[in-house]
């Protein structure tokens, strides 16, 4: 799968993307609101290999999409089928060196549009840590609506965290 925007190429991961991807996920600040901790020498290759292998959306797997800008991987978008009919969950992560350029919004919007318009997807949702205000702003900027708030619903890195659910429907496009 390749999706082109004005400035980006959204595509499957390739072996040559390892160092760019590592430079994103080895940062503590990047992983603060993610489920996993920063990548280390011990797990980086295994984590990256999942991105190479999972390049199609299947029932029990996550698809990983590389976000390429000027021949450099600056982020990742992943989608997973939920247990709800025709619903996907989206997760995105970007290199902080490329913030405030609109690149994350451009990428996430393009992926959402692609999956809502070209697959049997009815709804895409994002589940966010409430402290992640940048992610909240991104969701709102691209037309997702805040649908719910859950108090201390997720145990993450030694503490209970609150979550927001954002969503967008095919009919919203």
Q: Which CATH class applies here?
A: Alpha Beta
Q: Supply the CATH architecture.
A: 3-Layer(aba) Sandwich
Helix share, percent: 25-40%
How many independent structural domains? Answer: 1
Q: Mean pLDDT, nearest integer? A: 95
Largest sheet: 8 strands, mixed
| CATH superfamily heading | Gcn5-related N-acetyltransferase (GNAT)
Number of strands: 8
Number of helices: 5
Radius of gyration, in angstroms, nearest whole number: 15 Å
Low-pLDDT residue intervals, each spanning 5 or more residues: none
What is the H/E order?
EEHHHEEEHEHEE
Distance between the termini: 21 Å
What structural class do the secondary elements suggest? alpha+beta
Tertiary shape: globular
What do we call the CATH topology?
Aminopeptidase
Give the strand content.
35-45%
Protein model, in words:
The chain has 173 residues and is of the alpha+beta class. The protein has a single domain, classed as Aminopeptidase (3-Layer(aba) Sandwich). It is built from 5 helices and 8 strands. It has helices spanning 18-25, 28-31, 44-53, 103-118, 133-141; strands at 2-4, 8-11, 62-69, 72-81, 87-94, 123-129, 145-156, 159-169. The chain has an 8-stranded mixed beta sheet with strand order 1-2-3-4-5-6-8-7, with helices on both faces. Helix 4 (103-118) links the parallel strand 5 (87-94) and strand 6. The two termini are 21 Å apart.
């Amino acid at each position: 799968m390749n999706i082109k925007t004005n400035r980006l190429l959204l595509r499957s991961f390739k072996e040559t993307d390892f160092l760019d991807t590592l430079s994103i996920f080895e940062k503590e600040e990047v992983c603060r609101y993610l489920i996993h901790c920063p990548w280390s020498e011990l797990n980086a290759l295994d984590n990256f290999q999942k991105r190479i292998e999972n390049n199609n959306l299947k029932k029990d797997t996550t698809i990983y999409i590389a976000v390429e800008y000027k021949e450099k991987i600056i982020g990742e978008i992943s989608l997973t089928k939920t247990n709800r009919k025709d619903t996907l969950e989206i997760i995105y992560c970007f290199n902080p060196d490329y913030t405030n350029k609109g690149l994350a919004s451009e990428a996430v919007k393009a992926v959402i549009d692609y999956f809502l318009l070209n697959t049997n997807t009815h709804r895409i949702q994002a589940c966010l840590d409430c402290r992640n205000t940048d992610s909240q702003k991104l969701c709102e900027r691209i037309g997702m609506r805040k649908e719910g708030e859950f108090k201390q619903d997720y145990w993450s890195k030694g503490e209970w965290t609150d979550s927001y659910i954002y969503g967008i429907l095919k009919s919203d496009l």
